[in-house]
Amino acid sequence: MKKFETNEEMIYGLIIDDLDGIISANDKATLENWRNTSAANEQVYQEFLNVHLNMNKLFERGGYDTQSSWEVLDKKISTAPLAESADAKRGRATKLWYGIAASILIVLSAGYYFTYSNKYEEISTGNKGTYIILPDSTRVDLNSATTIRYRKQTFLKNRKLELLNGEVFINVINHKLPQFKLVIGELEALDIGTSFNVIKTDNSVHVIVENGEIALKEPSADKQVMLTPGKLGTYDVGTKALLAVDNLNPNYKSWLNKEFIFNEVPLKDVASQLSKVYQEPILVKGNSLKYRKLTARLHYQTLDSVIAVISASLQCKATKSKATYILSED
After folding, report:
1. How far apart are CA 62 and CA 112, in angstroms?
2. What confidence tens digit (pLDDT) does each residue in 62-78 have?
3. What pTM does this model have?
4. CA–CA distance, 248 with 250 (Å, rounded to integer)
């Protein structure tokens, strides 16, 4: 842990690489270890994340080309004078802090958004997920294309989180504080000591409880269902139907843990699920192969490993052309 404390430049560099999506697997493990070392470290990471997300939002609001803008900033930073004794690491750290200073100036210049950001902490993901730690230590994992928001300053007094769209997995911590509430459009999910997965689209809401219990409510209609482990709560926005049924999808959390259970599932459906989770296209060639059924438990972090197991299990050929995986008859 001493190494982390004395090498801030390295850690800051890893954070930037992580936010840019170019971090290696080994560096990712190092960064995760550092984040888990202390609450102070996690707070530093969250501050970087907030600046990163807010900057992207500001550029989108103004109609700027984000990449071009950062390239211009990089050129200006690279020409800034440094002390002659500064080494490469010092140069990288200085460039980083120039970037952060520029971010702060731009955020401060956008009065409306800055005021709004003080009221709500809003986090949106692009084509990859992330996770945040709320002020009460509750962990929220966000899938891609997901937006959440909460009032940061008053959260410990009113533990309310809003899921605006997308998918999250929430592990609620510290049940001695005021009850945790997730607002999902017209619904509220009230925590009773739990971890749970939620999907919100324009047409529906799905809530699956992993541990504990959830009270899923529609306050305006005075409707409520209780959800325990293994139960699925569904809500149809059009019909207003609120139901509690058995969860028949063992892979509801695969987007987060990369674990899958397939029991006599046609390969075309397997490929569809894997493509959605890994966000890489998988093509199955041949009608007979599309409907060949797979029974397997997959728990691999890379799609290459998953494809290799499927190929061996179904005795089919696996190739990759550009960015597409292809499964075909031998």
Report:
1. 13
2. 555 555 555 554 555 45
3. 0.68
4. 6
Total length of the chain: 330
Would you state the structure tokens that stand for residue 290, as one six-digit string?
A: 């599309």
What 3 state SS string does the chain have?
CHHHHHCHHHHHHHHHHHHHCCCCHHHHHHHHHHHHHCHHHHHHHHHHHHHHHHHHHHHHHHCCCHHHHHHHHHHHHHCCCCCCCCCHHHHHHHHHHHHHHHHHHHHHHCHHHHHHHHHCEEEECCCCCEEEECCCCCEEEECCCCEEEECCCCCCCCCEEEEEEEEEEEECCCCCCCCCEEEECCEEEEECCCEEEEEECCCEEEEEEEECCEEEEEHHHCEEEEECCCEEEEEECCCCCEEEEECCCCCCCHHHHCCEEEEEEEHHHHHHHHHHHHCCCEEECCHHHHCCEEEEEECCCCHHHHHHHHHHHHCEEEEEECCEEEEEEC
